[in-house]
Amino acid sequence: MQTAQQCGPAAGMPHRGALVTLRQTADNNHMSDTASNPSTPSQPASEAKQYSFSKDASADRYLAHHGDNVAGLVSFLDEADQINVTHTVVDDAHQGQGLAGRLVEFALTDLRDSSDKPITATCSYVQLWLQRHPEFAETLAR
Q1: Where are the residues of the annotated region Disordered (predicted)?
Q2: Considering the entire predicted model, what is its pTM?
Q3: pLDDT tens, 73-111?
């Protein structure tokens, strides 16, 4: 397993092996991505991967699920004056399918809608994603 991007401070971030052992948590912030990924030539439409997303508030992270497996995560720090998105990880088997972007969008949308705090990102992937999605500019710390 490899990280989609090495982001933010390493201290306190889950190590690569931790992704494999995570399990889906059921809460109010769980949603399914019913629109499958577009099929690739090597993957028929009937086998296109579907994902669901949830917030694991006890661990300050958002998870992407594929069936019973965790396919990716976005970690954040809820600080006194801001929320800092620190890390994005996608399992090797799920890379190259746009999962990281969809997970980041889910996480930032939830953070924006559930908190009045400005959002910062020390994760380089999230920084790049934010540059490509100006509709989230109003949530960023100035």
Answers
A1: 1-53
A2: 0.70
A3: 999 999 999 999 999 999 999 999 999 999 999 999 999
Question: Domain with 58 in it: what CATH number?
Answer: 3.40.630.30
Cβ distance 49 to 36 under 8 Å?
yes
**Residue 106, domain member (yes or no):** yes
| Count of the separate structural domains present in the chain | 1
Quick check: is 121 in a domain? Answer: yes
Of 21-30, 57-66, 83-92, 131-140, the poorest mean pLDDT is in 21-30
Which tokens hold the place of 122?
């020390």
Judged by average pLDDT, the poorest of 23-27, 53-57, 118-122 is 23-27
DSSP track, the chain: ---SB--S--TTPPPTTHHHH-----STT-EEE-SPPPPPTTS-GGG---EEEEEEGGGTEEEEEETTEEEEEEEEEE-SS-EEEEEEEE-GGGTTSSHHHHHHHHHHHHHHHH--S-EEE--HHHHHHHHH-GGGGGGB--
